[in-house]
Write a structure and sequence with these properties.
The structure is a single chain. The protein has 291 residues and is of the alpha+beta class. It has three domains: 28-176, Jelly Rolls, CATH 2.60.120; 180-227; 232-289, Orthogonal Bundle (Arc Repressor Mutant, subunit A), CATH 1.10.10. Helix content is 44%, strand content 16%. It has helices spanning 131-147, 152-174, 178-197, 204-210, 215-226, 230-248, 253-259, 265-276, 280-289, and strands at residues 28-35, 51-58, 61-65, 68-72, 76-80, 86-90, 97-104, 124-126. Strand 3 (61-65) and strand 4 (68-72) form a beta hairpin. Helix 6 crosses helix 7 (253-259). The longest helix has 23 residues, at 152-174.
Length: 291
């Protein structure tokens, strides 16, 4: 007998996560590091094609972004979008102590790649009551990277994703980022819905209805940030499933077409040959012939 183990009592409470993602999050942690106190430290002006975050642990100094200078103190968070010109310098009397991490392969709807913030936003924020949260995850990332124990890369990468979530939680207090992130939520809801239902008879109208978004706006977001149309995305998912079934089952081509979301065998064969270059039968035969 299957029992659903999810009931609340006074002693035991369950807190469920919803399935809506805040934004399209696929960042890769490039590096992390630590700046120790040095009374004559300063950087040369530079830029890079990845994003970087600097967390001030102690001391004072200054940061310059595209010619704009700001003072730095303990608890400050400096956010560099890709492409901005910047450098930091340390106060010789109270040298900076800081941690830093860098990311690439990061994209938010309506922003350039590897940009955390719209260009009109500030680049300097104070963590206030979230100081300990940022310190915890910066420490985890840096310590795991230095010690290189088993699974250190996975732990550091996951901690960096959590740190980004805290970053956006902080930004939501001070900047109007909610609308920006909601647009990404609509896109990610649509992708999640397609990934879960592509074997069914789904359409743009149905997806838009289920995801509570205008179908024309959804088509625009999909084309701009996924680089394809919704129809082609669904087709690609179905063809991948068909290839899997051809490889690992002995089902007939007709059965495979039906189980991979195609209602018309003739259309399935034409679409398969157009995208893969061979017919489904030829594709299966080629797999058998591989030693």
């Amino acid at each position: 007998m299957k029992v659903l183990h999810r009931y609340n009592t006074r002693e035991r409470q369950h807190y469920l996560l919803d399935k809506h993602y805040t934004f399209h999050l696929k960042p890769r942690l490039l590096y992390s590091g630590y700046l120790s106190k040095n009374d004559d430290w300063h950087e040369r002006e530079h830029s890079h094609d990845f994003a970087e975050i600097i967390f001030i642990l102690d001391g004072h100094g200054a940061v310059y972004v595209d010619g704009i200078g700001r003072s730095l103190k303990k608890g400050d968070l400096v956010i560099y979008n890709a492409g901005v010109t910047h450098y930091e310098s340390s106060d010789p009397d109270e040298p900076l102590e800081a941690q830093f991490i860098a990311f690439d392969k990061f994209e938010i709807t309506d922003l350039q790649p590897n940009c955390f913030l719209p260009p009109q936003y500030d680049f300097l924020y104070h963590t206030e009551d979230m100081y300990d949260d940022f310190k915890k995850y910066f420490n985890t990332i840096i310590e795991e990277t230095i010690n290189k124990k088993q699974f250190y890369a996975e732990i550091a990468q996951n901690a960096s994703h959590t740190l980004i979530m805290y970053l956006f939680r902080m930004l939501n207090r001070t900047e109007g980022t909610n609308e920006l992130l909601r647009r990404n939520e609509a896109l990610m809801r649509a992708i999640q819905y397609i990934d879960e239902h592509f074997l069914e008879d789904i359409s743009l109208d149905l997806i838009a209805e289920r995801c509570f978004v205008n179908k024309y706006h959804l088509s625009h977001l999909f084309a701009k940030y996924e680089g394809t149309t919704i129809g082609k995305y669904i087709l690609a998912k179905r063809l991948e499933e068909a290839k899997r079934l051809l490889h690992f089952t002995e089902l007939s081509v007709l059965e495979i077409s039906q189980q991979s979301g195609f209602n018309d065998l003739s259309y399935f064969c034409r679409a398969f040959k157009k995208e893969v270059g061979v017919t489904p039968r030829q594709y299966r035969k080629s797999l058998i012939s591989i030693p």
